[in-house]
Specification:
Structural class: alpha/beta
CATH superfamily of the largest domain: EAL domain
Largest sheet: 8 strands, mixed, barrel
CATH architecture of the largest domain: Alpha-Beta Barrel
Radius of gyration: 32 Å
Number of domains: 3
Strand order of the largest sheet: 13-14-16-17-18-19-20-21
Distance between the termini: 98 Å
CATH topology of the largest domain: TIM Barrel
Helix content: 40-55%
Number of strands: 22
Number of helices: 23
Shape: elongated
CATH class of the largest domain: Alpha Beta
Length: about 600
C-alpha cells in the first residue's frame, strides 16, 4: 500500500465514464470495487477473496477521513464499507454520501460485526444496499457482490441508456462531458463535441409512421457507432487518450464526445465522416430512404468550460448548419449565441403577434388553365411586425413548428380566411374558393373538424368556398384515422387538396381511399419545363393518374408562358404562380381579380 491505497486499476477514468454500450457487456468482474476499512489486514484479505473470484480492479483506503474524497474521485461501481472505524464511522460516510447528488447512488455493502437490528436499520436508512457479517465468508462475499453489481447494471441501463438505440442518454452524456471538461482543464488539452441532428426527420416519421421512424433511428445509431470505431485513430493519437463516445440526447439528435483532440481539424474530419456515412440510403422494408444530417462542432475549453454551455454552443452550431442548407457541419462562433437569442425573442414576439392579430393574409390567385379565369385563391400568411414591417413566412413558420405554435397559427389563418371569404360575399363579389394550408401537427389534432366547423360558424363563411390543403406526409401516418377525419371534413362541405404532390412517400393504393377533390403538383417538377414541347413524363403521369381518380389538378410555381402552354397541352385544370400574380393583400386581390 502507498498512502493508504491499494490500487491495481487499469485506468484513472471513473467507471461511470466507460465507453457506451460495450462496457456493460464486459461482465461484472470488470467493475471497480472500493474498500474502506481502518484495518489494512481486512482490506488485504477481502481483496484476496475477490481476486480469486476473478475481480481485478480495486481501490481502497484504511483512512476513513480520505474516503469521501476518494469515492468522489474514483466513482466506484460498488463500495465495501466498514461501519465501526476511528476518525469517521461508516454511518457518517453514508450520511455524507446521501447528501451528495453524485455519490448517493453508489451501491454500498456494509461490513459489520454487529448483529444489532438497530445498527442494520440505521445503515439502511442512510442508504446502505446490503450487509456482510464479519469475519467475511468468501462465498457469501462473492455472491452479495455479484447480486449488487447485477442490480446496479440493470438500474444503470434504465437510468443512463436510451432504450431504443442502446446508446447512452443525455444524463450519461452530461456526466461524461463534465469529466472530460475537468480532464481537459487539468491537463491543458482540447476536446470537442459534435451535435448531430437529422435533417427533416419529422417528415420521414410522418410519412412512414413511428415504427419505421424508430427503425431508421436505430440504423442511424449503428452508422454513427461505425464512424466512431473508424474515428479512434483521429481522436486518439496515442493510447493514453480516451476514446470518443456517442449518445442520443433527444428524439433525432445525437452527440459525439471527443475527449481529447490535438487540433480542431480533427473534429472536422470526424464530422465529414459522419456526413458521408449518414447520407447513404437507408433500406426500410420496401422503402429506400435518403436522410442527411447537420452537425454543430464546439471545441472546449476554448468555446466554454461548463458542460451546459458546451452543449448549448454545439446545438447552436448545429441549428446554424441547418439554416445554411443542411447536410453540413459548422463550428461554433460567439455570434451564434446572439442569433439564438434573437430567435428566442422572435418566438416570444410571435406568441404576442397571435394575440394582437398582427398576422395578415395575402392571396395568390388560382387560375383555370383553359379559360384564364380566376377560380380560387391560396391564403398565405405574413407577419406585419410593428418595428420590422412585413416578415415573410419562411422566417417565422419554422419557429412556429419548433415551438408548438404551428397549430394556433394554422387556426388563426383558417379563421382569417373564412372571415375574408364571408366579407367578399357580403360585398357582392364573386367568391373564389380560398385554400388554407393545414400543417401535419394541426391535422393530427383530434378536434380539427370541430375547429373548422367553428371557424365557418363564427365568420359566416360557406364550407363550399373553403379548400383545406394537406401534405402527403401528414395523411400517410395512421391512414385509418385520417380517412375518417377527411370524410368528416367532406361531410361538412369543405374541399380537400393534397399539396406538393410527388415530393413525399404516398402510396397510390392509399391515395385512392382518401376523399380528395384536388391534387397540386409541386413546383420542383414544373421547373423542368423550359419549352412547350418538353417531355415531362412525371407531370403527364400525375395529371393522368389524378384524372383517373376524378381529382382536379393544380400546378404550382408557373412563371413562364412555356410552362402554361405545356399544362394546357396536357389537360392540367388550374395553375398558380408569378405568371399571373404574386400573393397580394385582400383589397388588391378583390380589385384585380373579383371585379
Amino acid at each position: 500500500m502507498e498512502d493508504g491505497l491499494v490500487n491495481t486499476s487499469k485506468s484513472a477514468v471513473p467507471a461511470a465514464y466507460g465507453s457506451a454500450q460495450g462496457d456493460e457487456m464486459r461482465g461484472l468482474r470488470d467493475a471497480l470495487v472500493m474498500m474502506v476499512d481502518d484495518e489494512p489486514l481486512n482490506i488485504e484479505v477481502t481483496q484476496v477473496h475477490l481476486e480469486e473470484a476473478g475481480y481485478t480492479r480495486f481501490v481502497s483506503t484504511d483512512d476513513p477521513l480520505q474516503a469521501l474524497e476518494l469515492i468522489n474521485a474514483r466513482r466506484p461501481d460498488v463500495l465495501l464499507l466498514d461501519l465501526m472505524m476511528h476518525g469517521m464511522s461508516g454511518f457518517e460516510i453514508l450520511e455524507r454520501m446521501g447528501a451528495s447528488n453524485v455519490l448517493q447512488d453508489v451501491p454500498t455493502i456494509v461490513l459489520t460485526s454487529s448483529t444489532d437490528p438497530r445498527t442494520k436499520l440505521k445503515a439502511l436508512e442512510l442508504g446502505a444496499t446490503d450487509f456482510l457479517a464479519k469475519p467475511v465468508d468468501s462465498s457469501e462475499l462473492v455472491l452479495r457482490l455479484r447480486n449488487t453489481l447485477a442490480a446496479k447494471a440493470y438500474r444503470d441501463r434504465l437510468a443512463n441508456y436510451d432504450l431504443l438505440t442502446g446508446l447512452p442518454n443525455r444524463h450519461t452524456f452530461m456526466d461524461r462531458l463534465e469529466w472530460a471538461l475537468s480532464h481537459a482543464t487539468r491537463y491543458r488539452h482540447m476536446g470537442a463535441v459534435l451535435h448531430v441532428g437529422l435533417d427533416d426527420f419529422k417528415k420521414i416519421n410522418e410519412a412512414l409512421g413511428p415504427a419505421l421512424g424508430d427503425a431508421m433511428l436505430q440504423q442511424v445509431a449503428n452508422r454513427l457507432e461505425h464512424c466512431l470505431r473508424a474515428t479512434d485513430t483521429i481522436s486518439r493519437l496515442d493510447a493514453a487518450k480516451q476514446r470518443p463516445s456517442l449518445s442520443r440526447v433527444s428524439g433525432d439528435e445525437f452527440t459525439i464526445l471527443l475527449p481529447e483532440v490535438s487540433r480542431s481539424e480533427d473534429a472536422a474530419q470526424v464530422a465529414d465522416r459522419v456526413l458521408a456515412e449518414i447520407a447513404a440510403p437507408v433500406h426500410l422494408l420496401e422503402h429506400e430512404i435518403s436522410v442527411t444530417c447537420s452537425i454543430g462542432i464546439t471545441v472546449f475549453p476554448d468555446d466554454g468550460g461548463e458542460r451546459d454551455n458546451v452543449l448549448r454552443n454545439a446545438g447552436a452550431a448545429m441549428h446554424y448548419a441547418k439554416a445554411c442548407g443542411k447536410n453540413a457541419a459548422r463550428f461554433y462562433s460567439s455570434d451564434l449565441n446572439a442569433r439564438a437569442l434573437q430567435k428566442l425573442n422572435l418566438t416570444t414576439q410571435l406568441r404576442r403577434a397571435l394575440e394582437r392579430e398582427e398576422l395578415v393574409l395575402h392571396y395568390q390567385p388560382k387560375v383555370d388553365v383553359a379559360s384564364g379565369r380566376v377560380v380560387g385563391a391560396e391564403a398565405l400568411v405574413r407577419w406585419q411586425h410593428p418595428e420590422r414591417g412585413l416578415i415573410m413566412p419562411g422566417e417565422f413558420v419554422p419557429l412556429a413548428e419548433e415551438n408548438g405554435l404551428i397549430t394556433p397559427l394554422g387556426e388563426y389563418v383558417l379563421r382569417a380566411a373564412c372571415r375574408q371569404s364571408a366579407q367578399w360575399r357580403a360585398a357582392g363579389h364573386y367568391v373564389p374558393r380560398i385554400s388554407v394550408n393545414v400543417s401535419s401537427q394541426q391535422f393530427s389534432q383530434s378536434n380539427l373538424v370541430a375547429v373548422v366547423e367553428k371557424a365557418l360558424r363564427d365568420t359566416g363563411a360557406r364550407a363550399q368556398d373553403l379548400t383545406l390543403e394537406l401534405t402527403e406526409g401528414s395523411m400517410m401516418d395512421n391512414t385509418e384515422r385520417n380517412v375518417e377525419t377527411l370524410e368528416q371534413l367532406k361531410a361538412i362541405g369543405a374541399n380537400l387538396s393534397i399539396d406538393d404532390f410527388g415530393t413525399g412517400f404516398s402510396s397510390l393504393s392509399y391515395l385512392s381511399r382518401f376523399p380528395l377533390d384536388e391534387l397540386k403538383i409541386d413546383r420542383s417538377f414544373v421547373m423542368q419545363i423550359v419549352n412547350p414541347g418538353d417531355r415531362c413524363a412525371i407531370i403527364t403521369a400525375i395529371i393522368a393518374m389524378a384524372h383517373s381518380l376524378s381529382l382536379s389538378v393544380v400546378a404550382e410555381g408557373i412563371e413562364t408562358e412555356a410552362q402554361l402552354a405545356f399544362l394546357a397541352a396536357n389537360a392540367c385544370d388550374e395553375y398558380q404562380g408569378y405568371l399571373k400574380s404574386r400573393p397580394v393583400a385582400a383589397d388588391e386581390f378583390a380589385a384585380r381579380f373579383l371585379g
